Amino acid sequence: MAKIELDLAHAYLPDPKKDSDYALLPLKMAFEDGGAYALLGPSGCGKTTMLNIMSGLLSPSQGSVRFDGHDVTNQTPQQRNIAQVFQFPVVYDTMTVAENLAFPLRNRKVPRDQITKRVGQIAEMLEMSDQLNQRAANLSADAKQKISLGRGLVRSDVSAVLFDEPLTVIDPHLKWQLRRKLKQIHHELKLTLIYVTHDQVEALTFADQVVVMTRGRVVQIGSAADLFERPRHTFVGHFIGSPGMNFLPATVVGSGIQVAGVSLAKPDGQVLPEGAIKLGVRPEYLVPVLAESAGALPMTVSQVQDVGTHVMLSATFGGLTIKARLPSDSAPMKVGDPVWLQVVGAHTCFYKDDEIVA
Amino acid sequence: MNKTTKPVNQKAWLLILPVLVCVAFSAILPLMTVVNYSVQDIISPERRVFVGTEWFAAIMRDEELHAALIRQLTFSLSVLVVEIPLGILLALSMPAQGWKASVVLVIVSLSLLIPWNVVGTIWQIFARSDIGLMGAALQGLGIEYSYTGNALHAWATVLLMDVWHWTPLVALLGYAGLRSIPDAYYQAASIDGASKLAVFWYVQLPKMRGVLMIAVLLRFMDSFMIYTEPFVLTGGGPGNATTFLSQFLTQKAVGQFDLGPAAAFSLIYFLIILLMCFILYNWMQRVGTQTKEGGHA
Questions:
Q1: At residue B44, does pLDDT exceed 90?
Q2: Of the candidates A209, A237, A265, which is a domain's last residue?
Q3: Which positions in chain B touch A88 (Cβ < 8 Å)?
Q4: Has residue B163 got a pLDDT over 90?
Q5: How confident is the model over A118-138, as pLDDT tens digits?
Q6: Where is the domain boundary, A213, A237, A261?
Q7: Using an 8 Å Cβ cutoff, are A70 and A42 in contact?
Q8: Which of A8, A209, A293, B240 sits at 20 to 30 Å (Cα–Cα) from B136?
Q9: What average pLDDT does this structure show over A61-85?
Q10: Residue A159 contacts B, CB cutoff 8 Å
């Protein structure tokens, strides 16, 4: 097990000039020993590149990778003692399930009785004990991916276990089970786990710390609550949550905030830069308030969707559309109704140039 | 009427009639003429006698045929033993992509594009001990090499010629098999700490199984029917040292005009190839797919 420090940049092109030439822009970050991390971002944001650089399948075009302070930039995955699980199941067709699980240990000349013990333990965790002597080639995709996961977890002395969207091929209902299993295994084995995904639910339930990435950049590292309450970048606000955060263009003038021609009072004690900013407010924190309440805008309901557990409300005001998520027992509303929504409140975040300012 | 049974329409047979006619003309009728010859003694175009299974009995007891059959089996097995591993080795060492891959692919496939009798002629000249590059070089090294006089040398030369001609086919098939393995397998094996040998044994070889099976069958069938190249190179000699089955058959049918025994032998020849392919195919299907008992882990 090891603390992993990255101080690097990577481009697949030989001579990167613009920011968009980089798969990973220059970054500096650390993964603590024994943590459960998720790398979250849309396709093409550089998360798999970062994972492959950590595992050693790819070497960064600039900078270094350190494990516990030692430079491992030029080491192979074997030398780094990394385990990695891929998006699509990889099993050795000619071997049984047990032989598959034992393969990483056998290659490292672990004594036979230890292998048997460890394979038994992992098979137990993955609920595959009764399939140990079956040939891996004839199993379902789910079972094959469980074997891949098992091979990743079977070595107890690894520096870290890296998962590259490992549950893509798994059935939705098994997904829940396996994700819980992984979380449980993390507690039992105390391994450093790093998990790449584009699914926010997967990332938020699995990891203690979520690393949100976009366009080769890490925009925020934080717990699920941090990402929800205080997105540091508009991308995080927009990407996390369903639907994402509402953003309203606004202008700070003296002690007031101008939103779509209406002047709202600045919250007490907030220091905001003069000029153009954006207000960010989660749909979950938008509730109808009494007319003329502080920080509220008079809006018109444009769409109402009752999805059972809650009501999704879209409302417009002066060319702005915002979404609110109301409890299902709230007063019924229909299209065209006036509604006052409080956009400046305790949970409102303020952004300048997409970065949070308050 | 029972409503659960499917409707029966005998007219459907008409749909397969064209195929039946084609196959009849391309395979069944010619084969039947051979069957026809095999049970008759044709003395002259007007006089023929039905002899039953006599030709079959005679041909089965033919010492010369036994010798040719053993020669043929030895040759085909040697071909497989040399060409399959060599082809795999070649496939493994070929570059995976880029212009080098294209160049190597063209070079490797060159020998496959040469007509059989030209191959025979090339080697006939190449191996001549007076002017041939290989023959003269061996002479120069002090080896009394002569593919026309020495049975062993003739054998080695025919085998070498076949290896030169056909190993590229095995290599190309193996190469196609290798290219179809996703990168993730190599990455996973590297992370699992597998040695190069283990990667070959547990990843590459199992993934190449399908194409290698085709390679083995093709090479077996082709080498079992080999005719032109040894005919041009050695003419079956010295003595009968390189007379393989099809040349033996030609001698009988065309040389001596023994149509009856030749026809009987043709059928047996055909059955031998069919049987061998059946055995090989089933054996290779089982290897690597059988359930391992116990498992040692």
A1: no
A2: A237
A3: 182, 184
A4: yes
A5: 899 888 888 888 888 888 888
A6: A237
A7: no
A8: B240
A9: 86
A10: no
> Distance between CA B282 and CA B216 in Å, rounded?
12
SS3 of chain B: helix, strand, coil, percent, to 5: 70, 0, 25
Count how many domains chain A has.
Answer: 2
**Per the CB < 8 Å rule, is B288 touching A132?**
no
Under an 8 A CB cutoff, do B292 and A93 touch? no
Domain with residue A273: its CATH number is 2.40.50.140
How many CB atoms sit inside 10 A of residue A127's CB? 12
Across the interface, whether the CB atoms of B184 and A87 are under 8 A apart is answered yes
Per the structure, the complete domain to which residue A252 belongs is given by 242-356
* Fold that domain B69-253+277-286 belongs to in CATH: MetI-like fold (1.10.3720)
A287 against B18, higher pLDDT: B18
DSSP state for residue A240 in the 8-state scheme: S
Strands, sheet with A296-306, edge to edge from the N-terminal-most edge strand = A320-327, A310-317, A296-306, A338-342
- CA-nearest residue to A113 within chain B is B297
- The number of angstroms, rounded, from the C-alpha of A243 to the middle of its chain's C-alpha atoms is 16
User: The CATH number of the domain where A154 resides is what?
Assistant: 3.40.50.300
pLDDT at A342 over 80: yes
Shared domain for A197 and A272, answered yes or no, is: no
Could you tell me the pTM of the whole model?
0.74
Assess contact for B174 and B212: CB atoms under 8 A: yes
Residue among B190, B206, B294 whose CB faces A93 most closely: B206
**A residues 52-71 near B, CB within 8 Å?**
55, 57
Same domain, yes or no: A87 and A177: yes
Chain B residues touching residue A57 (CB < 8 angstroms):
187, 190-191
Interchain proximity A84–B191, CB inside 8 Å: yes
Rg of chain A, C-alpha, whole Å? 25
For residues A207 and A308, state if they share a domain.
no
Q: Report yes or no for ipTM above 0.85.
A: no
Q: Do A220 and A272 share a domain, yes or no? A: no
Same domain flag for A264 and A185: no
What is the pLDDT, as a whole number, of residue B288?
55
Chain A residue closest in CA terms to B194? A107
Same domain, A215 and A280: no
Q: Specify whether A66 is located in the same domain as A133.
A: yes
